[in-house]
Amino acid sequence: MSARMTSRRRTLTAVAGATAALLLAAGCTSNEPPEEEGSGATEAAAPVEANDEPGEKVVIGFSAPAADHGWMGAITKAAVDTAGQYEDVELRQAEATNDVNMQISHIEQFINEGVDAIVLLPFDGAALTDVATQAMEAGIPVINVDREFSSPFAARATILGDNYGMGVSAGTYICEQLGDNPDAIVAEIQGIESLPLTQDRSQGFEDALSDCGLDVDRRVAADFTIQGGETATSNLLQAEPKIDAIWNHDDDQGVGVMAAIENADRDEFFMVGGAGSLDVMEEIKAGDSVLKATVVYPSTQAADGIKLARLIVQDKNMGDLVSPGVPRTTTLFAPVVTSENVDQFMDMGFRS
User: Fold this and answer.
1) pLDDT over 60 at 5, yes or no
2) Can you tell me the distance from the alpha carbon of 293 to that of 297, in angstroms, rounded to the nearest whole number?
3) Which first-to-last residue range defines the signal peptide (predicted)?
4) How far apart are CA 219 and CA 247, in angstroms?
């Protein structure tokens, strides 16, 4: 392994450690009031679960796109389950929809009802920006999930998966496996090519590979569907007689990707998935397919949004942070799941 690659791995390890520390801080909260001046800064910290103690009632409006694939279904389920854990939370769930105008009308209804907070995963962030801004102007904090609004005034807090980081994680893993082989052929199966999130993932992947002297030799675009994944992969395998590694952006479309691989009877490469479906984790654990890893894109983002909305409305702090209040932006880590650590992530997996 080259000195450059070793340096890269050390840097990523440091970043991962710092990110994990931040996420731990986000998850460990305190509901204890601030200390009186002069009461002593060295006293024991409040119990980390104190913020889970019941407080004033919080009515949260929740809206997300239709669950037309496993990851989106898991997003909604986790949000609903998390809200149900709090006796002081009333969740008003809008009908899931991919119709932008309908989602706008749902947010307008939440505004008219005077909910305390809104957790919103917009089908289209730009299209929902105006109505989210209206909610903020009405004094209703909006928690923006996954797909960003086009204005900083549209949300009190934003929770994001790390799309660029997904690419970095996938590329770094492939570098670890192939970094000593500069002639290795690496392929990439995107989701929808035109989406910024896809472009971010591809850029992170390209950047990580270049750090160990590898390139993306062949890139094809699917559409986050099973059929699209199968078609794109069939075209890829026909065009490339030999491949050493594949990164597939999305485990849901990966069902089609795997079907194409099996139909072509190809197994000379290994594959890295994306998102973290339970199906893929099970294949990784079994160790009997080309799937050797996947990169997590957390399906807990809206659930985290529910928790943050509750903290904001109840005017609570994130106790393990020195700064008061809830951070404006939280970007979740994108860890690589392999056979060595898969048991740690199985509970987070979703069905494709």
Assistant:
1) no
2) 13
3) 1-25
4) 10
